[in-house]
Amino acid sequence: MNGRHLRWAAYGIALTAVVFAVVLASRFGADPGLVDSPLLGEQAPGFELAPLEGGEPVSLADLHGDIVVVNFFASWCLECRKEHRALTSTANAFADDGVTLVQIAYQESPPDTLEYLETEGRADSAFYLADPGSRTAIAYGVFGIPETFFIDDDGVVVGKIIGESDALTLGATIDAIRRGETPGQSVTGDTRQSPDG
Rounded to an integer, what distance in angstroms lies between the CA atom of residue 152 and that of residue 66? Predict the structure, then answer.
């Protein structure tokens, strides 16, 4: 191979390295909230989880036909605490309209979550579930909490809120789904990945 071919080969390798570095930098340094969930428009991952206090498991399949609002939360998450009353009031307001709230504890022991719920209250129609090993959170691609997924009555993920929700946003999203619309994803605030931040 002569010098000119070597030079072109070196240019090609350098260009490939630069393109690869740009792609890596753009993906790994990005805020995951800015990337739409790959679940949007897809069938929601199924789950069968026990209530926090034990008892018969609750299956997503059992809720087919309802609009299901799946919220991942924990007592150590300040944003989760801020949105809790909005979630419970929304669940109560839509309970007779085929809407079910499912709150799944994220990286927390059931006794800690139950203590939190005793203080903060619950929606009568909602399910509060444990997620051992965070298997369901992983299936949903949860990066930080709170994250809230909206599943239509056909079992398709049609909306997602990253960050703290309020009653107006929750209600408007549910109303849009009831009209047959697809709300998509929105980022409303910060999330937390662990009790340390």
Answer: 7
Residues linked to residue 103 through DSSP beta bridges, in sequence order: 71, 128
Question: Is-contact 105 73, C-beta < 8 A?
Answer: yes
- Report the b/e string of 164-186 with b at 16+ CB within 10 A: bbbeebbbebbebbeeeeebebe
Cα diameter, the chain = 79
Q: What percentage of the chain reaches a pLDDT higher than 70?
A: 82
Sort 27 into a burial class: Cβ within 10 Å, 0-12 / 13-18 / 19+.
exposed
Q: What is the pLDDT of residues 157-197, one digit of tens each?
A: 999 999 999 999 999 999 999 999 999 999 988 888 888 75
